[in-house]
Amino acid sequence: MTRKYDAIIVGGGVIGSSIAYHMAARGLKVALLERERLGGQASSAAAGMLGAQAEISEPGPLFELSRRSRSLFPELAIRLRELSGIDIGLERKGLLRVATTEQEMNSLLHTIEFQRGAGEQADWLSGNEVRRLEPGLSPDILGAMLAEGDGHVLAPELSLAFAKAAAVLGADIREYSEVQSLVLEQGAVSGVRTRDGTLYGERVVMAAGTWSGPLLAQAGLACPIYPVQGECFSVLSHAPLVKATIFGHGCYLVPKKGGRLIVGATMNEHSYDRKVTAGGIGGLLAAAIRLLPGIAAAEWESAWSGLRPQTADGLPFIGGHQDLLHVYVAAGHYRNGILLSPITGQLAADWAEGKAAEGDYLEAFRLDRPLPKTERVNQDEFAH
Amino acid sequence: MTRKYDAIIVGGGVIGSSIAYHMAARGLKVALLERERLGGQASSAAAGMLGAQAEISEPGPLFELSRRSRSLFPELAIRLRELSGIDIGLERKGLLRVATTEQEMNSLLHTIEFQRGAGEQADWLSGNEVRRLEPGLSPDILGAMLAEGDGHVLAPELSLAFAKAAAVLGADIREYSEVQSLVLEQGAVSGVRTRDGTLYGERVVMAAGTWSGPLLAQAGLACPIYPVQGECFSVLSHAPLVKATIFGHGCYLVPKKGGRLIVGATMNEHSYDRKVTAGGIGGLLAAAIRLLPGIAAAEWESAWSGLRPQTADGLPFIGGHQDLLHVYVAAGHYRNGILLSPITGQLAADWAEGKAAEGDYLEAFRLDRPLPKTERVNQDEFAH
Amino acid sequence: MTRKYDAIIVGGGVIGSSIAYHMAARGLKVALLERERLGGQASSAAAGMLGAQAEISEPGPLFELSRRSRSLFPELAIRLRELSGIDIGLERKGLLRVATTEQEMNSLLHTIEFQRGAGEQADWLSGNEVRRLEPGLSPDILGAMLAEGDGHVLAPELSLAFAKAAAVLGADIREYSEVQSLVLEQGAVSGVRTRDGTLYGERVVMAAGTWSGPLLAQAGLACPIYPVQGECFSVLSHAPLVKATIFGHGCYLVPKKGGRLIVGATMNEHSYDRKVTAGGIGGLLAAAIRLLPGIAAAEWESAWSGLRPQTADGLPFIGGHQDLLHVYVAAGHYRNGILLSPITGQLAADWAEGKAAEGDYLEAFRLDRPLPKTERVNQDEFAH
Amino acid sequence: MTRKYDAIIVGGGVIGSSIAYHMAARGLKVALLERERLGGQASSAAAGMLGAQAEISEPGPLFELSRRSRSLFPELAIRLRELSGIDIGLERKGLLRVATTEQEMNSLLHTIEFQRGAGEQADWLSGNEVRRLEPGLSPDILGAMLAEGDGHVLAPELSLAFAKAAAVLGADIREYSEVQSLVLEQGAVSGVRTRDGTLYGERVVMAAGTWSGPLLAQAGLACPIYPVQGECFSVLSHAPLVKATIFGHGCYLVPKKGGRLIVGATMNEHSYDRKVTAGGIGGLLAAAIRLLPGIAAAEWESAWSGLRPQTADGLPFIGGHQDLLHVYVAAGHYRNGILLSPITGQLAADWAEGKAAEGDYLEAFRLDRPLPKTERVNQDEFAH
């Protein structure tokens, strides 16, 4: 129980697993500790959208981080398939963000302008053009932003593929291993105390989503993260109901392999309760049927929920701590955990190797940045 | 494979299992053949209402059969618990059939009158009286018929308890045993051919729901039965949301053990498709929230469906065949299979023992009765 | 979040749920906090044996506590069924503890003697007598102790029934509510801090199994509890394979409703890992087939495991704390949690009402008793 | 219900789905009818071995058919992923067929000789060479045949991918559609009668595994197929326990994505019962632990079974009928259904297009070939 690792990673979700994979790929000896099962929380509840353009409507560091991370997926998909046998289901068939009011249309036109200025493809399609691409969509749609670069992956598969690929590369994966506190020695973190015993390592990475905050607070570090519960459901059809990902009013639709369609998501702030409610499902169902009437005939599959880890300014915490040595935090990715997992893994591995982080925009994710008093949900004005 | 039974029963749903139980309890040597798993079809999809009064709004043979069958449950529950260990969850906390329009109110007042005339308790409650009993119900409710004698059981448990109690009493239960045809000898049935081989018996009972028709047709017997698919879902809460069974507009609510509430049911005629549709669930959810607004906060559990076996005049086929000897049919119970299973089992066992059926009303269920050309759903005018 | 309760109970397993039920039944206003789902851990993994005589081979306080608790079940079963609708599956068809060696036989004869001395029924049956009762058992069995008073319940149902009955009686049940620390004020506990906020109460009861230790340790209280993982599996047959509970060499067999048979259990000390291993199942299967050869033809159902909370002297901690006021501990019940849940609930409710505990034997469960340095498993010499 | 198809395919397993895919890819209008769910029977129970060399120890038509079909997988995997989004998990990491006795060794050396003569790679590895490749394997292994060309796919995914790709290409997929008889007109088949109604088509393909025989028998065609039940289980580990597929004494091991390992399979002839037995699992577990001791520590996942469709001479029926026009049979693929599905689909599509089948070896699969009186299991002398 006292074996020494190059890095101990706390949290077996998509962020922690990506960090384990990236570190193991660079030859580091890592332990990945998960208190229940790998990917058992928010990571496997996600719809897996890679919405670098669709989810972010203004320039800034989150946009930079997102599009850089998105560009890492094609190579990653191949490598993870080779190592773990798991296909992460990467699809890049574009994303349509639809408008049903003039206000939404104007907002999208503004977003298109900013994204083109940033060098990304983004186009406005009229209602008829939208329905030519996706004949099942509602006649009420006035038009849509088409972001061809956005896509999606299978979130549970991505999370597991990172962890299993890390295991193949030598990482020590420990499930049912609950961290109770950090081991502090002379202003540095040197290990973690679990229910089974103490593990020592050169570095500790906190990647436990909403669980990260309390563990860090015990060590006197403030990284406040709060949960926003999201409920989803899925339906099945033989031929796909839509080809692109559709981002609409009150719901989004993500087409998965074999005719599966995920519909998400509600946003219940500050709830740690993971129960799916009848009302939540009822609301999503009504919104989905308005957007895509044919979904009413599709086969009901199942409903689930997850807790997205949110921060007061809507940005994740990514970085080493300025006061306490040898600890790195990667948490609070909110709705962007799947999208941001590759770059977060890279950044953490760079830190472990002592490489300086490139890019001024990363300053925005520092742990000691000033946070607003009033929490906000990083939520688009009309999507939900 | 050529062992000789007193009776071979085709169909391991609630009807066939009840018949196996009642025959085994009288010392007969029976085989119960089920092509898949016991209770795997309509029987375990049912909400388990014992709605002798709530489901039937006019006098007649179905009402007679229903209330006689209902009266058998209390003793049956005790006996099945003793033999099989299974509690069938009998609850007799009454049933409220609510009205939200004057038309529905008048129709219910008419039903109350007929039931009182038949010697059953049935009362009209005002909207306020209804909400005093069930505070969670909608303020839109004008009033309700209260039938204190109606109740419910756990449908899957009842079906299994019959079969397992029969096994304890010596019945030979065979799952994955698919009957392909009846063995006919000199104007009588003497066995069944399954995929595994042929079984011989003194009598054969057809209790295979919608599967009964084609098997009988092969033997030249016309017992036309068609499916009406019903979709349901369930929610969970710690304390029950309602105490009584509630029969409303577009849905009914049946409170089960441990705070579970079953909401049913759609009616899709002539569909053999057992898939639950998103639209079906959406419609039920909306109706349930209108009837009982607090259900929106309850935990979503799951959705399922079953195929109810319906006939052209809405009455089951129960009886021996007039031309072909040694064959008995018990099928087409539609929405009343759970309620009618005890008396159907008794009647079939009486037949096997050579006892004459008592009661003129039983004539209505004869196999050779004239059937209307146009099929009908035995459906109440306003409940769905 | 600052509502004041008469008692806050931490842990929604069978012990915490029983305490909530007993307190609510006496009119106290209680909150039951569970970090995941009710009964999700050891309580629903248990086989539900009420082995007051079979599990305990020597006189002492655990025997006293066990037989008193066992006597509470018949009335409890009725009351819980009324309140929650849940049948706890109480069966009192006796327990056979079999011997296959002379040494085991002598040990059992010794146990029989002690139990008779204590006023309990216990008989020695020869091998032939055993097989007359249970014809399926192995011819290798030399004989068995028959304890007619022992029996079993459905463990998951008992745990849920306590909680749901408590909810009906007004208890506030909170799932996904993870307690992070106790609120201490002037030498007394006045509440708990959860991830959602702080709850205040007159009293706090710690009933969180293996999770209790670390929470208490934060408050400076030593109640060391360690896990012993147990793996089980179940099979199905139409008619039951055995009538009595069978306690044999390397496994035990507990017959459940509908022909289900639970086979348990391995004992892996100090493992927090809840994974079922292939080797664990292989060993249990081999032992079960030796004991009851006909089980080989039964249908495989599923396998699972749970973590039993064990203490250094094999006795649970039950009692208020001598130094810190208003806190009560009920944890460490090891393999006897189901059996001891009724009396533990009663004792905690007595404490909350200020009643003095009756019985000197209760001293043995005090929190400040001296504990041996070397941990032991409270394990019979030959059963496992 | 009277729509006319180019072809109606009966049976939604891997064979029927492959035929639907291949026909739809050639522009034919097809209906695929499945009585329950797609891939719900043997196809999703298979371990997915592509054992063209490992399963077949002598030259002949089955070997020819197998290696031709195996060569189709790489391109197929890419095409199915594009169309359906489903990765069929093709792995070609070789297959080791191990020997633990001299007799087995000699038999394998004979097989190697024949396969080399046929132009396939096949090598003998000593025990030490085997353990260098797969360090976890038992020290009792004397040596093994290594067939590098063999591999495996995910059987449920392959079956679904065929059907879903067919749907994308326009095929009409109908689940819960049970065919009751063929429509015969003037010596030709012109459609099928289902429970819902009659469908007409230019051609009918029977691909319903063990269900094919009775349907064909109704039309006077003898294609006797009988079931051989196979039980399997799976375990999980983070890093894979073996890299190659291992074919041993009493079991085989097939490593799947993410550290999953499938262990198969028992062979229970003439059983239509799909229940997994405790004894079947116990035997497989013991064999697997002997072959790969480290499996004992792996996590138990689940057990299942399927019915493999076998014929009297161990060869499938593939071909049009000589007397009855417009009907094609593709059934009885026994343990090779996954492996043979691509070529069977091609052959059926060739037939539908009126192309003559190439290759004399195909004569061996004709429907009117003489069959031995005594049935045999196409079983290797020592593998099971």
Automatic annotation (TrEMBL), chains A, B, C, D:
<comment type="pathway">
    <text>Cofactor biosynthesis; thiamine diphosphate biosynthesis.</text>
</comment>
<dbReference type="InterPro" id="IPR012727">
    <property type="entry name" value="Gly_oxidase_ThiO"/>
</dbReference>
<dbReference type="GO" id="GO:0009228">
    <property type="term" value="P:thiamine biosynthetic process"/>
</dbReference>
<feature type="domain" description="FAD dependent oxidoreductase">
    <location>
        <begin position="6"/>
        <end position="351"/>
    </location>
</feature>
<keyword id="KW-0560">Oxidoreductase</keyword>
<dbReference type="GO" id="GO:0043799">
    <property type="term" value="F:glycine oxidase activity"/>
</dbReference>
<dbReference type="InterPro" id="IPR006076">
    <property type="entry name" value="FAD-dep_OxRdtase"/>
</dbReference>
<keyword id="KW-0784">Thiamine biosynthesis</keyword>
<dbReference type="GO" id="GO:0050660">
    <property type="term" value="F:flavin adenine dinucleotide binding"/>
</dbReference>
<dbReference type="GO" id="GO:0005737">
    <property type="term" value="C:cytoplasm"/>
</dbReference>
<dbReference type="Pfam" id="PF01266">
    <property type="entry name" value="DAO"/>
</dbReference>
<dbReference type="InterPro" id="IPR036188">
    <property type="entry name" value="FAD/NAD-bd_sf"/>
</dbReference>
<protein>
    <recommendedName>
        <fullName>glycine oxidase</fullName>
        <ecNumber>1.4.3.19</ecNumber>
    </recommendedName>
</protein>
